[in-house]
Design a protein that fits this description.
Radius of gyration: 21 Å
Strand order of the largest sheet: 3-4-6-5
Shape: elongated
Largest sheet: 4 strands, mixed
Strand content: 15-25%
Number of helices: 9
Order of helices and strands: HEEHEHEEEHEEHHHHHEEE
């Protein structure tokens, strides 16, 4: 407004006209994206191009994670239709054109402990850079928020694809900031996929568990499955209440 010499009212009226002409789009109040001709078919540029300036505008730290991060790191099975961002604040989703940006809440304490530079990576865009979870954080986030990562089988596929490339040391260091049940779930899936070194790094954390937890908590109870008894894994203290299936 200072550059254009316009008042707030004049600027907002002009911006609204440009939005109607599909020259601008506004995913959040006070934040505008200029649409290039090639962006207009999808309604907005790819979110990686504008998520960093948007989050800075909102004053909230973030990291791209889950399915989008898994695809970035090479999990070819993950066609990420949803752009998932972890943040220490509850933020409503943004649906803009064909893009669906979903925010996953992590408590401020856990977020501050995990969103460390050495555990993050960056996506380079023509707008600059965007923060994305490193390989180890991606695995941990997927195990923790498995219901947002295509369920237990989706996470198993990501673990199979990426687990062998993870640093065992980084994985163990970051894992202490996650729930023990999520660590056990990830350790079991790493071992199942043959990534023994990475799985062993999580065993000292798993050993602290006092009780068994279901591999897939979305299956509410054993009784709900017709009273069937399930095998248990004493190493990871898990009830194996779901058959894990992945593509090789």
């Amino acid at each position: 407004m200072a550059s254009l010499g316009q008042s707030t009212k004049t600027f907002l009226a002009a911006a609204e006209r440009l939005i109607k002409k599909r020259r601008l789009v506004s995913p959040k109040r006070g934040f505008y994206i200029i649409l290039r001709p090639e962006d207009r078919a999808t309604g907005a540029p790819e979110p990686a191009r504008w998520i960093d300036p948007l989050m800075r505008h909102m004053g909230v730290d973030y990291r791209i994670s889950l399915l989008r991060a898994a695809a970035f790191h090479g999990s070819s099975h993950q066609a990420a239709m949803v752009f998932q961002v972890i943040a220490p604040k509850q933020i409503p989703p943004i649906v803009i054109g064909r893009h669906n940006v979903r925010f996953v809440y992590q408590t401020a304490i856990a977020f501050a402990a995990t969103n460390r530079q050495e555990w993050l990576d960056t996506i380079k865009t023509d707008f600059g850079y965007a923060k994305i979870s490193g390989l180890e954080l991606t695995l941990l986030d997927c195990a923790r928020y498995f219901h947002k990562a295509s369920g237990i089988n989706g996470v198993a596929q990501i673990v199979r694809d990426l687990g062998g490339k993870a640093s065992a040391g980084k994985l163990a260091d970051a894992a202490v900031h996650y729930e023990n049940s999520a660590i056990r779930r990830l350790g079991y899936l790493l071992e199942l996929s043959g990534h023994e070194r990475q799985a062993r790094a999580l065993l000292p954390i798993a050993a602290k568990a006092k009780s068994f937890k279901p591999l897939d908590p979305s299956v509410k109870s054993i009784a709900a499955l017709g009273g069937q008894l399930h095998e248990t894994d004493s190493k990871w203290k898990l009830v194996i209440n779901e058959t894990v299936e992945t593509d090789f």
